[in-house]
Amino acid sequence: MRRCDMAEMVQKESGGAILNHWALAISCILLMITGFAFLFHLEWIGSVFGGFNTMKTVHNWVGVIFSVSLVFTMFQYLGDSLKYDADDAQWFKVAGGYLSHKVKVPPMGKHNPGQKLYYLGIALFGLLIALSGFGIWLMKENTTIMLLSHLVHNVAFVFFCIMVPVHIYLSTLANPGTLPIMLSGKVPLALAKKRYPKWVKAMGKM
Known about the structure:
Blueprint: H1 3-7, E1 9-11, H2 15-40, H3 43-48, H4 52-81, H5 86-93, H6 113-138, H7 143-170, H8 181-184, E2 186-188, H9 189-195, H10 197-202
Antiparallel strand pairs: 1-2
Helix pairs in contact: 2-4, 4-6, 6-7
């Protein structure tokens, strides 16, 4: 691995993408915390917000931020998340190398299939949780919509409780060097060549 590759940085994410990522992440975590408090009537969390009524107001308006950020995320990642090739299929066969370091992981583009599926999951369940949330908030008079919205909201919430912790683990402990990308937007060229060789080649830096 050449020393110049270790020193040279390449821009993987834009400033706008980073800002939107953290808006989505922080709003999502706040919604999960307050959602848990509502679901299990956790008084001690409610007291942090000054009571359940105040926490409900915070939950609703943070939900607006989440929804807007979700739309931007979909515009940014949805197109790439729907594109799969033979290397992506092979990636699934070897589970991305997470289960064994002895397997050969095929070359990847800017995003691997696991990330693509995560973005699709966030898009699908994010839309469900956002739309049902607005239904709960704004359609109190319609019993049918309220009941359906609560059901969809809770089911989507369960999927978020699975996806988000897995995403946090894979972007930190499982893949050292990934988190700094969402802080500066940059990645060492050497690391990019190792993890995203097809993307680096497309930029003409191989």
